[in-house]
UniProtKB/TrEMBL annotation:
InterPro entries on file: 4pyrrol_Mease, 4pyrrol_Methylase_sf, 4pyrrole_Mease_sub1, 4pyrrole_Mease_sub2, rRNA_ssu_MeTfrase_I, RsmI_HTH
Species annotation: Paracoccus thiocyanatus
Similarity field: Belongs to the methyltransferase superfamily. RsmI family.
Name of the protein this chain belongs to: Ribosomal RNA small subunit methyltransferase I
Function text: Catalyzes the 2'-O-methylation of the ribose of cytidine 1402 (C1402) in 16S rRNA.
Domain Tetrapyrrole methylase, first and last residues per copy: 28-229
Chemical reaction(s) catalysed: cytidine(1402) in 16S rRNA + S-adenosyl-L-methionine = 2'-O-methylcytidine(1402) in 16S rRNA + S-adenosyl-L-homocysteine + H(+)
Keyword list, A-Z: Cytoplasm, Methyltransferase, rRNA processing, S-adenosyl-L-methionine, Transferase
Gene3D superfamilies: Cobalt-precorrin-4 Transmethylase, Domain 1 (3.40.1010.10), Methyltransferase, Cobalt-precorrin-4 Transmethylase, Domain 2 (3.30.950.10)
Protein encoded by which gene: rsmI
Domain RsmI HTH: 259-298
Location within or outside the cell: Cytoplasm
Amino acid sequence: MEDGASSGVTGARPLALSVSAAPPQPGLYLVATPIGTARDITLRALDVLNAADVLAAEDTRNLRHLMDIHGIPLRGRRILAYHDHNADRQRPAIMAVLAQGKSLAYASDAGTPLVADPGYRLARDAAEAGFPVRALPGPSAALAALSVSGLPSDRFLFVGFPPAAAGARRTWIESWRQVDATVIVFESPRRVKQLLENLCELEANRVTVICRELTKKFEEVMRGTAAELLERLPEGGLRGEIVVLFGRPEPVVPDENGLRDALAALLDERPVKEAAAEVAARFRRPRREIYALALAMKKERE
């Protein structure tokens, strides 16, 4: 984790941070931590890390380092490890802490807990048991990448990490390829090239953005089609933390028979105007054109 203490502003005075807030109420606190620059943590997160009765982390070394950077002492507290390999064994111990009426702060390796990390089961079980579960918003690699990508953000789909096996990865791509949304993917830097190769087999012109090392010293954003970026990537892949985003698919342009089939499925249940509006929006065709076709079909039926 990079220490981003420098502000880069000439003559700027160092900030005096206070972590002397009142102890948090009992419950589970999901603490978002920096994805790179250490100063991206929130003041509330520092307060909770300073005052929580018990600490837990996906990577205890990362959390300890972050606390050291910001001058937060452990004061005898242990940091419980909670990750993919011990979650089932460790969860009962964490639930026991909550049952004692204590506050427990859980931090993912980097970014927002529950986004591609094992915190989901912990939050679900705590909520089902009636314990308060509170989120401390903060850094998120997925949302940071979406912000800088230049791709539409009104509708997006986060699909996590692709399967490692080539066949499973192709099936996985098919599961989201036609979704009308910006798609956000976490990928190993060594397998980015394979991911683009698989997509190019189906849709080489898909608008693609690769974000590398977000918020860190060597941050890089690459934009182009899947085919163009595939040509630019080195043979051995990339280095660092990677987020890949894919723009929305090109709309399928149906012939008249396809439009008629889509309208026929709706005209039995909806007024002509509503059916035409939905089909026009779905296929991004002029509403007046589809409305005229729907009226013609209704007359044919009559």
